[in-house]
Amino acid sequence: MRNKPLVSIVIPTYNSEKTLAKCLESIKNQTYKNIEVIVVDKFSKDRTVEIAKKFGAKVIVESLDMSAARNRGIKEAKGDYLLSIDSDMELTPKVIEECLEAINSNEKIGGVVIPERSVGNSFWVKVRDFERSFYVNTPIESARFFRMNLVRKVGGYDEDVIFFEDSTLPQKIKELGYNVEDRINSIILHHEENFSLWKWLKKKYYYGKTAYVYMKKYKKYANEKVSLFYRFGLFLKSERFYSKPLLAFGVIILKILEYFSAGLGFLVSKVKK
To answer: Where does 185-244 have alpha helices with state H?
Structure first.
């Protein structure tokens, strides 16, 4: 291990006991072994911290929003590379191995995209998985694996932003002239078995409150990230979209509801200002 670079994995958590063990087990089962895991917990009321410690993760307990939690973990990290994931994600065995191969294939690669699949039996989870499939090789995907020296150079994630917060770090690294669109074949399984449409839309409303900040600070990227027309264009221009009419209808309804909820949050934040 001494000659192998260390990969730091940062995971924000809050009441994550239902999914965290599966997430940490998938890290344990990686083909690449020189890994440290840092869990930043927001005072969970369940067994989250207990589970994290059981798997040997370093645990930090602070009341922080997502971006700040990620940055807190980055501050403690000792690795040469960063992998930023959520507690309901499961890595397939070669994710880290392939990320290292990709990022070291060219010194100008600063970030690596890992494909994601939504996992769950509900209709809306199947809709989300179908939707994700149209974002492959588009600006809507965001890198999760980075060179740590670049992460520190740009100051990590933007803590002023909740709206598309996971995209702020790769966008800042891209501004330095690095490629953050390289991708691997291995996937992340995003476990959404307990997906609630109501909770999801409340989350979008909350995110929408910082939409103005995001669009102002990251205007160069926001047009494609935020644009309803761009996303609908990806769907409607693809013949594959029409091959599953029920899921296609679900995608249209879901996006309309999401944009309505986020737009409402955006308007409320503007009125308060």
So the answer is: 197-208, 211-217, 219-226, 228-236
Which residues, 6+ apart, have CB-to-CB distance to 19 below 8 Å? 87, 88, 191
CB 196 within 8 A of CB 204: no
* CA dist., res. 138 & res. 140, Å (int): 5
Q: What angle do CA 236, 241, 244 make, to 5 degrees?
A: 140
pLDDT of amino acid 1: 59
Q: Is the pTM of this model over 0.90?
A: yes
Tokens of 75: 């501050």
SS3 at position 224: helix
Q: How confident is the model over 42-58, as pLDDT tens digits?
A: 999 999 999 999 999 99
Q: Are 138 and 231 in contact (CB under 8 A)?
A: no
Which fold does the domain 7-272 belong to in CATH? Spore Coat Polysaccharide Biosynthesis Protein SpsA; Chain A (3.90.550)
**pLDDT at 161 (0 to 100):** 86
Query: Residue 260: exposed, middle, or buried by beta-carbon count in 10 A (0-12, 13-18, 19+)?
Result: middle
Domain residue ranges in the chain: 7-272
Which residues have a Cβ under 8 Å from the Cβ of 201 and sit 6 or more positions away?
A: 257, 258, 261
Q: Which residues contact 216 (CB under 8 A, 6 or more apart)?
A: none
- The C-alpha atoms of residue 103 and residue 179 are separated, in whole angstroms, by 10
pLDDT averages per 10-residue partition of the chain, 273 residues? 88 97 98 98 98 98 96 98 98 98 98 97 96 94 97 96 90 96 97 94 90 84 83 96 98 96 87 63
